[in-house]
Amino acid sequence: MTRFSPFDTTLWYATATPPVETTALQGAVKADVCIVGGGYTGLTTALDLARAGVSVVLLEREEIGFGGSGRNAGHCTPTFTHYSLPQLRTMLGEPWAERLIARQTRANDRVSSMIEQYQIPCEWQQNGYVMGAPYPGMMKTIEEKVRTYNAVGARTRVLDRQEVERVTGSPRFYGGWLHEEAGHLNPLGYSRGLARAVIQEGGAVYTHSPVKACDRAGAGWAVSTPEGKVLADKVIFATGAYTVGGWPKLDRTFKIQKVFVAATQPLSDEERRSVLPQNTTIHDGRGDIYVYKYNAEGRIVVSMFPMGRRGRDMGYTRTVMSDRLKWLHPQIRSEIRWDYFWFGELDMQYRTVPRLYDLAPGVVALTGLSGRGVPTGSMLGGILSEWAKGIPPAELSLKLEPLTAAPFYMNYGPQLTLRYYRVSDWVKTKLAGAAVPPHA
Fold this sequence. Notes:
Elements: H1 11-15, E1 27-36, H2 40-51, E2 56-59, H3 68-71, E3 75-76, H4 85-92, H5 96-105, H6 107-117, E4 129-132, H7 139-151, E5 156-159, H8 161-168, E6 176-179, E7 183-184, H9 187-200, E8 204-206, E9 213-217, E10 220-225, E11 228-237, E12 255-264, H10 269-274, E13 281-283, E14 291-294, E15 300-304, H11 314-328, E16 338-348, E17 355-360, E18 363-367, H12 373-388, E19 400-401, H13 413-431
Parallel strand pairs: 1-2, 1-11, 2-8, 4-13, 11-18, 17-19
Antiparallel strand pairs: 3-7, 4-6, 5-6, 9-10, 10-11, 12-15, 12-16, 13-14, 14-15, 17-18
Pfam families: DAO
Domain FAD dependent oxidoreductase: 32-387
GO molecular function: oxidoreductase activity
């Protein structure tokens, strides 16, 4: 029995364009490359390879976008989480850090290009992302973000208190960080559009085809499903947090961090004129995050991490979300109704950057996106397709490394970190004499 929440309760399942018609794999097929996993990473890898004339077969255990690529909140911000760019350089070393930074910070160029080229209907809006400063002392961190991200070619700037209120519609911030290249979309619509593009370019996509084994077959590999088999020269596992079988111990390379997403009723036209008037994505600036944006219907879509009662007691959880939203935007006078509520799972790494594993000659796996789904999954397809086309490992943007289990402390590390952030933010806010949000 899988641990995953029902897929068809999500807002995206209710509003995305229908999927391209696919079937389960039956019988034996041959391919240069077999990709396991129908999320952004697998789909963009398959698309790159198909466009290059490489024969590719993609296998998905459920349906396209069933995992994080169809459950996330739809934010597309080409940044790193938790670690600053200088910290990443120290942690990853060169040339790996600079290569990955270049890929990630330009990831939205890739997303936008694929959406435009294949006319993917996914509510794509590239109106920027704002991380607010909930207390004055955070402005120093924001200024450093502007300096370091702009130094690698990103378009970001500092917002003062008046500007951040004009852009977000919230009076609660002392300033903010505006990333002009960020966007948001319907994540399932994007996944389904990528699958359609793969097929359009000549790739094969099979759904409801769980991988049972991956075994040596002559000079290549045999990837087996209940009713079929793919004979391929190379195999890529791109199953992320929704890894079930396929390769021994692959599901031990990360630890699960749950996240929940909820969507309100459509706000009135009057409310929309003053709440997120520029249709940006907003991060309230706290370590215990509250991130939100509109969908095409005018619903506010919010994501948070479970903590204590939050995420377990649904009545309490909805109260927390409503109180925080109305605190951030006092101009919302109507009662907040949460029409959709669902859970997703993140494949967390302690470094919060993906890991590329060398499983066997001609077989790799990639896990550990750590919640940076849309832009990160999209840019990773470029790295994996380069590996499949024979680019030497020393020239890739991720270091190939042996399969390694996530450390034991990751069982509790993410939750402890969230709790630390929550206390730290409360202390800093109180010391600054700033207003503390409800339930903080």
